[in-house]
Amino acid sequence: MALTHDVPPRLDDLVPTAHRIGQAIESVIEGKGDVIRLTLTVMLAEGHLLIEDVPGVGKTMLAKALARSIDCTVRRVQFTPDLLPSDITGVSAYNQQTRDFEFKPGPVFANIVVGDEINRASPKTQSALLECMEEHQVTVDGVTYPLESPFMVIATQNPIEMEGTYPLPEAQRDRFTARIAMGYPEPTAELEMLDVHGGTSPLDKLQAVATTAEVTALIAAVRAVYVSHPVKRYAIDLVTATRRSPDLRLGASPRSTLQLVRAARAHAALQGRDYVIPDDLQDLAVPVLAHRLLPSIEAQSQRRLPEQVMADLLHRVPVPEARAR
Description:
Strand content: 15-25%
Number of helices: 14
CATH topology of the largest domain: Rossmann fold
Strand order of the largest sheet: 3-6-9-1-10
């Protein structure tokens, strides 16, 4: 059925702008097109991204490449066991000249915050990001400070089996819109990496291809992408299925439903559509929902990962017919 409604303003500009950003990142990260597309989807959905994988596969490089592709403020935080919450949010310090306390902002006051190896810090320090990620603000000594817009946290972490790591609390994982794994590169991509990265880092040559104003406008355009009632109902059915599954002792939260629909809007817009179809939700269900789920003891004994459980649920939940407005 042909669409009868008008395309939201600036949505036509989204695909070429996102393509430019994606190409810039791919000049640094070879052979990871799917990972880069999901990263752009999370950014345009006003979300936060958790990149989990073993050391040395390019997690931090991906985060830095996205940050440099956009002409915006970027701060990097290296999470360590001795890092304090105030090292992230900022601190009130006494100024002897004014004889008063003044707030010194922490690295979280930036458009893109890169948190490297977030699970090497203590849970207390990890929780310093909870208010920042959910409410886009920081409260220090009873005073609330708004964060810049757009605001995105890109955190990397090593698997919890790695020595010296702390598992992220459920509340912290739930703040991340999606979790992705980089995976090892293909031999051809790794060979190209040796040629490209052998002398100098390609990050040194990476130039910004989009401005903060452009990204803000694109985010506003994504908000206008249409989601029909049957598609919204399908999103709720998927999340409800995780809460009722005997393989899970913790299902997805209501926040995850909202973030799934937001990500689906961005996913549709990146494909040039101003409406969401069930395929958008299916493509995003595993990266958006799986990291929030806790398997049951029986599932753990059978070594069934939450990603596998979510994939099974996608086959069981009835899919509505796609409808245009």
